[in-house]
Every structure is written in C-alpha cells, then in structure tokens.
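Support request, please re-run this one:
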Amino acid sequence: MNQLIECVPNFSEGNDTNIIKQITNEIESVEGVKLLNVDPGKATNRTVVTFVGNPQAVIDAAFLAIKKASELIDMSKHKGEHPRMGATDVCPLIPIAGISMEETAEYAKKLGARVGKEVGIAVYLYEAAQADKKRNNLSIIRSGEYEGFFKKIKLPEWKPDFGPAEHSVKSGSTVIGARDFLVAYNVNLNTTSTRRANSIAFDVREAGRVKREGNPVTGKIVTDEKGNPVNIPGTLKSVKAIGWYIEEFGIAQISMNLTNINITSVHKAFDEVCNKAWERGIRVTGSELVGLVPLKSMLDAGKYFLEKQNRSIGVSEKELIKIAVKSLGLDELSPFKPEERIIEYLLKDDSKARLIKMDLVAFADETASESPAPGGGSIAAYVGTLGISLGTMVANLSSHKPGWDERWKEFSDWAEKGQHFKNELLKMVDEDTNAFNKIMTAFGLPKANDEEKKARTQAIQDATKYATEVPFKVMQLCYDSMEVIKAMAEVGNPNSVTDAGVGALCARSAVMGAFLNVKINAAGLTDKAFAEKLIAEGNVLEVKANALESEILKIVNGKI
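Re-run finished. Output below.
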C-alpha cells in the first residue's frame, strides 16, 4: 500500500482571497499532493487548508505554504476570534494509509527543522512529534497567543524545538506535529453571549472547569491538599471546546475539536451541547464543520437520528448524509456540499466507477454499442443489484407499515443488510469491465524478446484469473442476498410480496449470468487446479440459487 498522509495547516488569514490563493498555489505546485479543501473563516480571520499525498511531497508542499504565509501575513495587524500565535498557526500531519504515527512524527520533525532553519521562525512540536509531555498539547503551547509570546519564548522551558528563540513580529511562531484525525466542529446558539457559550463549552469539554465556592464564576477557587485547583470534568471525552461570538453571523458558538471521533462522535457532541444549552435556557440552531469529515461520521450520524425516530437505517448513503445534514443543521450558515466536505469523496477515483455514474439510457446505449464492454458480467452484477434493491425496498416499506410500528427494528436490520449487498454489487458492475480491460491491456504488452514474452504471458494469466474471480464474487453476493429477499417474501409487507418475487428472479439470473463469465474466463487459465475448484464451487452456487428461487416463488405465489 502506498503511504499517504494528510496535512491540515491553519493560516491566520480568512478575508483576503488573494493571499489565501497565493498560499494554496504553493501547495498545488508540488507533484504528488492533492488539495482537498480550503475553508476560510471571516470572523476567525483564519483559513483551514487540507491536502494529501505521499509523505515527502506533503512536507515539501507544507514548507512552501508556511514560507509563503510568513511573507504575506503580518501578525502585528492580525485580529480574529480564534486563538493564534503565528502566520501559520498550526500545521499537523495525519497518517491516512500505509504509514504509522511514529513515521508521521518523524516527517513532522523533518518539516519543523527545515522551517526553523530556512524560514527563520520559531517552531514548536506537538502531539506525537513532541517527546516532552509537558508541552505536547496545542492549547498549552499556544497559551498567551501572539501578543504574549514575545515574553513567553524567552523562558527556558519554552525554548523552541527549532529555529531562533525569537518571536517574529511579522510571522509570529508556529506549531508543527503529528496527530490522529481531528474533526473541527462548531455548534450555533441562539445567543450573542460569549460568557454563556463558554459556560456550555466548560460543561461538555473533557477538561471541564475549575471548581469554585458558591458562585461558579466569581467564587473562590477550591484547591486540594497540595494547593492545586480542583477540577470538575466535562461530560464529553476527547473534546476540547471554547465559546466565542461570530460577528459575521451575529451568534455565539461552541467551537470544538473532536480529537477522537471513535470516543465522541459528531452527533454525540451535538446532542450533548443541545442538552446543556437547554438547561441554560439556550437553544442550538445548527452547526458547522470546519474542513473535512470522514464519511463514517456522516453515515453514523444519519443512522443515529433515524434510530431516534424509530425509522429504518437501511437507506442509501445519500439519504443517510441528507438526514445527518438536516439533523445537525450543517446547512444553517452556508450550504453543505458532501462532495466537497467528505474526505473519501474527495479521494475517490471516479475513473474506475464510470458505468454506475451513467443514467439508465446512457448505460443501455453503452451496453448496446459495438464495444465489447460492458458485457454480460457487468449486466449480471447490475441485475443482481436490482434484485436486492427490490428486497431492500420491501424491508423499508415493512418498517414503515401502519400497525407494525413495534417491528421497525426487525425490518431496519434486514434493510441495512440489503443495502450492504446493493453497494457491493454496484462496485462489481464497473469492476467486471475493469477486469476485462486489464486483459486487453495485458495482450497489448510488447513481446519482442523472450523476457518480454514471459512477462506478457504472466500478465495475461494474472488478468484472466482476476476476471474469473470478479464474476465469482458476483455469484456469491447475489446468492447471499437471496436470504434478505426470502425473508421479505415470508414476513415482509404482503402488499409488496411480488416485488420480493421479482427480486428473486433477478438474483438467480445474476448468479447464472455471472457463472457463464466464470466458466469462459476460467477456460483460458493455465492454473487448471484453480479453474476446476472455482467451477466446482460455481456449480454448487448455481444449484442452490435455483433451488432458493423456486422456494421464494412458491412463497410468493402462495400469497397472491
């Protein structure tokens, strides 16, 4: 697997689009990186940029961006709601694929050393890149902000990790590190009071608040036997939060960093802020995501809010995201475009999913053209997709059937299982054509000498083997999906029993159609043992699918 890291630098400029563009141009000038998102905030006067790539390319791009920011941004004139200490306030590296946190931390150190030496500004390491646990927390490092750092940097315990022990008047200082994926998330309130917003932030953030006698704001701080302040922890683990006022929108917000979304999810943070705000007579009106969010966070949120309504969660990915956006109010302040804000969507290579992006007419026209692909394999996968889609439809209709309210979870589980098969089979529609194209590419390889002939022969065999495995996987998926279809014929909404019957016909046809492709591709394999094993297993699947189809149709015909 290729190594992939993400970089999310925060630059202290959110209003001048020309400055922001010059910085992002530096990032895009480096081969091997992809700019995913640029998210400027006017009130915070801060822009969060997200890009990914191979580690060396990422730190090269980050260096150029930090250098350009130091040239263009004058911190002595900077004003903004968000805490900050430099032109590039913070620059985290996040491991995405094929690389450990330890390796990512080494790249952060490498970047920090280069920035300190070549840009000439003070650099502090944080999180996984910082060995000293007393100074690895970003908020502790940044305490005092730009204005207070001129004195702070002179303290022995705050000597920079790299660069001069001088806080630049123009560029300030910067923090570079390695951390896990973090979601920056703000919740909107129907108040203009920063103090009240902060009270809610203290209620929920893990660090909580200092305990006081009497008045929680002005009362005397309670200390332990050692004289240290006693702390009242907040209700949410792995959450940092502050309250602020956003003049641009005329509201106060709870600004949160969700540092481990496996512990505290976006929807859990949202609901907890709603509860704590309500206790203080304040209402949450919506929320906003800063930068990018993982797809799972959105899908989990969609399922969470559907379950709260006793509704089926076995709906499409698109529908789950729509429910999440509306429930969290992510479109209150500005439109939320999933294709621009969900990291997996930005990384997706749509060139390998050409067919399923077509409309029905275009797909039919493409199939009917003189091109040999898409062919029977892709069509078999699509027929199987339609079959389980019908089964899933029956499950969802059953979940909402009047009088069956107490059974919504039963049918929701079946619908969710059906959605899984549907999504996997949709991938196979294009994958069968991609497998065919691999064979054609292998046949086009040079064969001028013995070495090239040997390599070409091996490439053809590898591609043919893959083109046999893909339709076999279609067979397995379609047969397995018939479990959902049978259940819906048996216990689903009786008004839709014929839909389950048609689904069974599609699933069985898909099994048989895919098997034809398995057999014709297996015939070209030199690995006869592998070919014979796959054919034998395919015969069993075909017989079982035919038998199960007959069983389902008997149930259907018995009910109509």
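DSSP finds 17 helices and 13 strands in the chain. The mean pLDDT is 94.
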